[in-house]
Write a structure and sequence with these properties.
The protein has a 7-stranded mixed beta sheet with strand order 5-4-3-6-7-9-8, sandwiched between helices. A two-stranded antiparallel ribbon has the order 1-2. Helix content is 32%, strand content 16%. It has a single domain, classed as 3-Layer(aba) Sandwich (Rossmann fold), CATH 3.40.50.150. It contains 7 helices and 9 strands; from the N terminus they run H-E-E-H-E-H-E-H-E-E-H-E-H-E-H-E.
Length: 207
Amino acid sequence: MKNFIDKVKFDVNSVCDGHHKTTYRGIKAIRCPFDYLIYQMIVSEVKPDLIIEIGTNNGGGALYLSDLLSFNGNGIVHTIDIVDMAQDVPKSDPRIKFFTNGWQDYDIEQAKSFKNILIIEDSSHMYEDTLNVLKKFHSLVSIGSYFIVEDGIIDELGMKKEYNGGPLKAIKEFLNENNEFEIDRKWCDFFGVNATFNVNGYLKRIK
């Protein structure tokens, strides 16, 4: 039996290696597979009419989000980056609008006509950037919707110093200063305690 292996062996590092190779409809879409499943449940439950994704890369993630919205029959994606690396398929999707001047230059007024907004922070993962993104965009999130902060897993991967404390440091500081959001353990612990790359990062707006 060629290639038959009796043992099962994987850990956060092997999942990390795999997530860098993940594609969606043939386009690179760097995101933990656990979180892809969680995202489709959240989008189905919340039914946002606008998803703001901060961090586009090749556009596979934005394309996935657009397809999820199409199943709801409503909604668009605003995806933001500082470079234009998106491939042709997401660029041709009418549900996706691209912004390539960075989150600092995104005018939040253009989001205020939407009634139900979900935001995903997946920019540099630096503590300062993550905190400033939270501060700039949090007021747009609808009550009952989410501000998802990606890649708090860098602490577990031993990379916290490279990101000056990274997303988890920013989440703690933001929540200490803002009582409108809480960590939704339903999603953070769906596959086990913080078995997600968005460790403590599913922030639900409660008021």
